[in-house]
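Need tokens for this chain, all 495 residues.
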Amino acid sequence: MEYLVNSREMKTCDTNTIEHFKVPSMVLMERAALSAIEVIQEKEISCNRVLVVCGTGNNGGDGMAIARLLYLSHIPVEVYLYGNKTHFSKQAKEQYEILTSYGVPFIDEMEDANSYSLIIDALFGIGLSRKLDDELVHLMERLNQSSAHRLAVDIPSGISADNGAVLGGAFKADDTVTFAYCKTGMVLFPGAEYCGNITVKDIGIGEESWLDKRPAAYAITKEDLNSLNNRAADSNKGTFGKVLLVAGSVNMAGAAVLAAKAAYRSGCGLVRIYTPEENRIILQTAVPEAVLTTYSAKKADTQQLIECLSWADVIILGPGIGKSDVAHSIVKTVLKNAAVPMVVDADALNIIAEQTEQLLRPHTELVLTPHLGEMSRLKQLAVSYIKENIEQVAEDFAREYNVICVLKDSRTVTAIPYGKTFINRNGNSGMATAGSGDVLSGIIGSLMAQGLSAEQAAPLGVYVHAAAADERSKTVSMHGLTAGEIINGLSDVLS
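Here are the structure tokens for all 495 residues:
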């Protein structure tokens, strides 16, 4: 896992490093500047003529330190200082005085931005919370229209470090060098679109700087997949768990097919599908490995369903079940009688949205996987509001109903009630395709059946799902990516 920090958390770490561990702030600033130079060198960015755009705060101080290092390397560099010098932070003032002593050129008016090969943004950093005024928006537009390579220091100016919002306008970077930890607003959209390639550099703010606290948000990394490699050589199909998949309706067998295939491909031992009789032939043909229990589309056998529930180690409820009276009855029965962990998805969420207090009844772990539209129905909130506040909405919902909330979007957020929040960093736009959510449900349910806790399986399943999409997009492209292709990608990710 890696930490994702907001502006408050990063400032706390910075302060702890300076005040508790007695590391001078100018030392941190110098290391930040050296890190930026390393990125320029590592990426072989042209420095035929460089413009460093600086503000009057500590981010501007970073920029001025970068300008000095470039100047001392005999690189043509100019500094455009925006803001009133009387508002300099202590460190920015010191860096300004050093620059003027060396004779580094400052410019009052920016020439044609296309005349530079590299533009470095060091205006505001992570502390910005207000919207940019018209003058600054215009400046951002001029810089963004330049043909120069654009490098942001810590975070592109105009992007909220907390939620990725564009504060009126923002610098659009080709590369961003950030310090200590990646910032939440650099991962969430639209901020992620403005960061380009992100490089995280160590400047001396480490684990010790948290003291007795830790960040609220995390991201799963490839190394976390190691927890899935402990499969005993003498295992049998029962070893890796039994998944009951309550899925499908008349003329809607596809969701059951995709979820079942994803569950098997993710490693579970047995999948039993509870579905209408009309789906028998399709499912026996498409997923011959699955056990079928069918019911009449007109009336489900409650006792039969309860027996299925008692068989399972994990239940996946909802893909493609529709919103008929029978579907309502099935959802009610499952929520009332389930005694094992459960993934609740798709149509089950839409049914629950009509009576959300049903979520308070189960005496087992629930993982809910709504997309923005489903969450809108669950919470009676506008989709636009949810998208702008996705982390907070997921966390609030998880705590209100004591469930794990996997809120799906371009950056899926997994909120553990009164625990960690995970923001997924991988994946691509090809995942916006029919059936992708069914595949995710199958993956999460499968991981839970294999012994992972719901708290482990939910964020890890989201990561695996996205990683599989990334693998397959290399072959079929993002335009041609289907839910079935994501399933095919699971073998590459979990091998």
